[in-house]
Design a protein that fits this description.
Layout: E1 16-18, E2 22-31, E3 34-43, H1 49-65, E4 71-76, H2 82-86, E5 92-95, E6 115-120, E7 126-130, E8 142-146, E9 150-155, H3 161-178, E10 184-188, H4 195-205, H5 223-227, E11 229-237, E12 240-248, E13 261-266, E14 270-275, H6 281-285, H7 287-298, E15 305-310, H8 316-319, H9 360-366, E16 375-382, E17 385-388, E18 396-398, E19 402-411, E20 414-423, H10 429-445, E21 451-456, H11 462-467, E22 472-475, E23 492-497, E24 505-509, E25 521-525, E26 529-534, H12 540-553, E27 557-562, H13 568-573, E28 596-601, E29 608-612, E30 625-629, E31 634-638, H14 644-660, E32 671-675, H15 681-684
Parallel strand pairs: 1-5, 3-4, 5-7, 9-10, 14-15, 18-22, 20-21, 22-24, 26-27, 31-32
Antiparallel strand pairs: 2-3, 4-15, 6-7, 6-8, 8-9, 11-12, 11-13, 13-14, 16-17, 16-19, 19-20, 21-32, 23-24, 23-25, 25-26, 28-29, 28-30, 30-31
């Protein structure tokens, strides 16, 4: 903003901001549904009140010109949103001064420069101009001494590898965009090894007296704080603004009425304003002013992030704060439609597994590592040790046990491993712990290369179903050990779901009429006979798969009966007739959840996650533990150089993430541990252009 007018910034200066100015950033991205537009206004810490008022006004005008489609953000220097930071891959540079004091975004090839930049951050880098003095330095950060033709990068003794490499990326970007590539970069990683560069630094900064300070860790919101979401209804009454709290988590979409405006407060970490389609123009205009007023009333810092959202053009960040978000008629990428509710059922899509390698994004979307044609070995945890299971009974799992399933497959001629830890609902805590410990041992035997997947009974991932080729049977309780303590029940009922060998499983349900469902096939086994009960909504494929499973659960004669033509003995075995779910299957569409990547840190005893928006493979650093959330599963990616504490805490962090997620997530979501260099296709498929040779 210059003299209260909008003036375009030269592209070479993108990412550089004067602290005395205000800026507007318009960002457009193509998506499967058209384009997503974000409009940010950025406030420098030394900008005037007038400029801050003017820039907010321009954003409202731009929003009107773009027909209310953009998501609008208010950004304050040093507290920018993760979305904003994702636009400037090499980092953001804050410069002293502004237009008013005669500063302009300079053209390239300026060499009469002398400044010191304090570089902070690992995933999101920012560089602030600080006083040219040793007092500005500390042990934990990177500092760039910029002398025009020479850039000296000084790395604090406690810097991480990632911070050093991000610092270098920033130095290179200054060299290339501001100096036309004509500047030398020198690096001081250890002062003793770089006497010449230290000599230059001392000429500029003088001799250093005293010790360097310790780095001050950034104050970041932890996950518990972010989980504390509250929804407020905002309206005018007799010229007064009324803000009324209407709900806390988990929030549901139906709370948002199209005639109104709402404020959603995410633990004071971020404030969202949602503007209903049918709300008045006045209400829409007042969105930012209301949000700022709300921040003041709550006593939050004035730097708190604000995002203004329009009904029907919500951001992914906003949607994931709700328990379930439904779009009008939106189907999945492969014709798969998500369903919810007791009767709903996912339509299975036939897909060609030979395409998986050519199209890793398919592997990710279908949650398949390969075509399930590899080798399986299964062990049961018995007396806290691994006991091999008889291969004849592979695929039969009992709720009183824990199992380890090792799946081996070949990829470019060498073996890869997936290790499933299946935890029965009725297994003891000791067995569950022993299962995890034995998994670590088994992983070690295979060179620490296995992908470890924690599977909770009833939440088996797609690939797990596929490797048992349609013979997966889950018994509610009991054990598959030789000496069984309790006799098997005489009457059992199994619900069979699936249309082919890749997606079928049979699950034991209570042997009562109320367990039936018209959309499925059920097997009822008694001491004399095995009934195949076919609900009205089931398909021929489903009946065929049920016949295959029937031979596993019962050696008795098989009787096929259709819904509505049951003999009296059938109801007797179930303890009498009773109402059961019989409505036609309904399809409700759930938003295609955008995968999200986070850096996890647990250093300070607080669990902190930093989101990387618009992520790519470059964002996985060797010293990181990263969490990739694809909604149906949680991946933990463990870097080679990550610290032992964070590695050991990884699974606990993932559970904590699910527990504190604002949308009230299912705690039984599979958690998958992936190691750097041994990533399976269903992980790499979420990244654009994955390079398997990068490491």
């Amino acid at each position: 903003l210059q003299n209260m007018k909008m003036v375009p910034v030269p592209e070479k200066a993108y990412g550089t901001f004067f602290e005395g100015d205000c800026y507007i950033i318009l960002h457009t991205k193509r998506t499967s549904r058209g384009s997503a537009v974000d409009l940010h206004y950025w406030i420098g810490k030394d900008s005037s009140q007038d400029e801050q008022g003017a820039v907010a006004l321009y954003v409202t005008q731009l929003d009107n010109a773009l027909r209310g489609n953009p998501v609008q953000h208010r950004e304050v220097e040093g507290h920018e949103s993760e979305t904003f930071q994702s636009y400037f891959r090499n980092g953001i540079i804050y410069k002293k001064g502004g237009v008013a004091s005669g500063f302009k975004h300079v053209e390239t090839n300026m060499y009469n420069i002398k400044r010191l930049l304090h570089v902070k951050g690992k995933k999101h880098v920012s560089a602030t101009e600080v006083a040219l003095s040793w007092d500005s330095f500390n042990k934990g950060d990177v500092f760039l001494l910029d002398l025009g033709k020479v850039l000296i990068q000084w790395n604090g003794p406690n810097c991480s590898i990632a911070e050093k490499s991000r610092g270098l990326a920033l130095a290179r970007s200054i060299r290339d965009s501001e100096r036309g590539g004509r500047a030398q970069i020198g690096i001081i990683d250890n002062e003793k090894d770089s006497p010449d560069l230290m000599q230059i630094m001392k000429m500029v900064l003088g001799e250093r007296r005293g010790e360097l300070r310790d780095a001050i860790p950034d104050a970041k919101a932890d996950e518990l704080q972010k989980a504390n979401v509250r929804l407020y209804h905002v309206y005018e009454k007799d010229n007064d603004l009324v803000v009324q709290e209407i709900a806390t988590r988990p929030l549901t979409q139906d709370l948002l009425q199209h005639e109104d405006c709402y404020i959603l407060d995410q633990g004071g970490f971020k404030i969202y304003v949602w503007r209903g389609k049918a709300s008045s123009l006045e209400e829409k205009k007042a969105a930012f002013t209301r949000a700022v007023g709300f921040i003041q009333a709550k006593g939050y810092p004035s730097s708190t992030n604000i995002e203004v959202i329009n009904d029907g053009a919500e951001s992914a960040m906003f949607k994931q704060l709700f328990q379930r978000w439904t779009e009008k008629d939106e189907t999945q990428g492969l014709g798969k439609v998500y369903t919810t509710g007791k009767i709903a059922k996912v339509e299975q899509v036939k897909f060609d597994t030979t395409q998986l390698h050519a199209r890793p994004e398919l592997a990710a979307e279908q949650r398949m590592v390969d075509d399930a044609s590899g080798e399986i070995e299964v062990w049961r945890i018995e007396d806290l040790q691994m006991q091999p299971v008889n291969p004849k009974t592979y695929g039969q799992f009992y709720g009183g046990d824990c199992y380890l399933v090792l799946y081996t497959y070949l990829r470019s001629g060498r073996p890869h491993y997936v290790l499933y830890m299946w935890q029965g609902r009725h297994a003891s805590v000791d067995e569950i712990t022993a299962c995890a410990l034995n998994a670590i041992e088994l992983d070690k035997k295979h060179g620490d290369e296995a992908v470890q997947v924690r599977v909770t009974m009833g939440k088996e991932p797609t690939h797990f179903l596929a490797i048992f080729k349609g013979k997966l049977v889950i018994y509610e309780g009991g054990t598959s050990r030789a000496q069984k303590s309790t006799p098997e029940p005489a009457i059992r009922l199994f619900q069979v779901r699936g249309t082919d060998e890749m997606n079928t499983k049979a699950t034991e349900v209570p042997a009562r009429a109320s367990s039936l469902n018209s959309n499925d096939v059920f097997l009822l086994t008694t001491s004399q006979v095995c009934y195949l009960w076919c609900g009205k909504g089931c398909s021929g494929d489903e009946r065929e798969m049920a016949k295959m499973v029937a031979d596993i659960v019962s050696k008795r004669d098989k009787h096929t009966i259709l819904e509505g033509q049951e003999p009296a003995e059938f109801w007797e075995a179930l303890g009498g007739k009773a109402p059961y779910a019989s409505e036609k299957r309904f399809q409700e569409q759930i938003t295609h959840y955008q995968p999200r990547l986070f850096e996890c840190s647990n250093q300070t005893g607080r669990f902190i996650m930093t989101e990387v928006v618009g992520f790519c493979q470059e964002d996985l650093d060797e010293d990181d533990v990263m969490l990739l959330d694809t909604w149906e599963e949680i991946f933990l990616w463990v870097g080679k150089a990550s610290n032992t504490y964070e590695r050991n805490e990884a699974i606990a962090s993932a559970k904590e993430y699910l527990k504190t997620h604002p949308a009230g997530r299912d705690l039984a979501t599979p958690i998958i541990l992936v190691k750097q260099g041994y990533e399976p296709l269903n992980f790499t498929g979420w990244f654009n252009a994955w390079d398997p040779y990068k490491w």
